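Human: Can I borrow your eye for a moment on a structure tokenisation matter? Separate attempts, laid side by side, tell us more than any discussion would. Could you pick a protein and write out its sequence and tokenised fold? No explanation is needed for now; the record alone will do.

Assistant:
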Amino acid sequence: GEDRGLGRFVLRYGSLVEVSVYQVVRLISLIDLLFVPFVLTFDYVYPLRRDVYVFLADALLFAAFALGVALRLSTSFILDSSIVECKDPMEIRKRVIKKLNFKVDVASLVASPLLYVRGPLAGM
């Protein structure tokens, strides 16, 4: 059928994989909301940002979040106007890129590495 070719490129909305990815990204976001302020707060007392384990943990969280953001570009969704599932990869990407929450996630991906920069721009 028609879905067989798209199955490799599009995560179906509501599928076990899509729901699992969504839940993992939500959990990672919550952990990162706790992790980043903790590291920044105690960095003056103990240089946590220079600790290899803290860096690895943050890198893994960053990579998993980036993967979740990228997968959103290939996840089908329900069209509001017709209540039909959109499975066209180009249409999915076009609509996702226009959404504010996607732009905010991309901005956070760009800003995240700046936590490890020292100097006048970092305020340290």
User: Anything to note?
Assistant: The CA atoms of residues 28 and 60 lie 10 Å apart. The chain is about 60% helix and 5% strand. The radius of gyration is 18 Å. The longest helix spans residues 16-42.
